[in-house]
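Journal club prep, notes for RB
We'll compare a predicted complex against what the paper describes. Inputs for the zinc ion case:
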Amino acid sequence: MDENAAARFRSKIVAGPEAHDCWIWTGAIGDDGYGRFWTPTATGGQRMIRAHRYALALLTGGLDELDEFHVCHTCDNPLCVRAEDAPTSHLYAGTAFDNMADRARRGHHNKQAAAAFFRHETKQQRAHRARVLRDHVRAHGYDPEAVGSLLRGVTSGQQALF
Ligand SMILES: [Zn+2]
């Protein structure tokens, strides 16, 4: 992995203060609501990769190894890049089947705020909300109350954002 790219990647992460909080990606966001990151290729070009995939690749040692896997979120927050070699990780590599089984298993019992936020949304809604969340974290840092509210799709004031 390219060390400069890795350092650039890490500089765009804002980790929550609590032990189990998400680590929010504050870089570019694509139209699917997921983070975007560009890494240099061996031939001098650039490769675009989803930020959560890159986060896990940093752990596993390479992007190629990940190519056949889906990278799944335990938190359903598309901006979360919390990849750790520990049970506290919010990201893991699985097959497409794992991904579906995991969603089915968690279903409506998931108490994570992000679940209600991002599930059952169109791509456009998800992208919009992801950008609002990112912009808030960029401007104010990880304010747990605000992040929680944004993850539920409502601002901390009276006015619903969406
Ligand atoms: Zn998370």
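Talking point for the session: The two ends are 39 Å apart (CA to CA).
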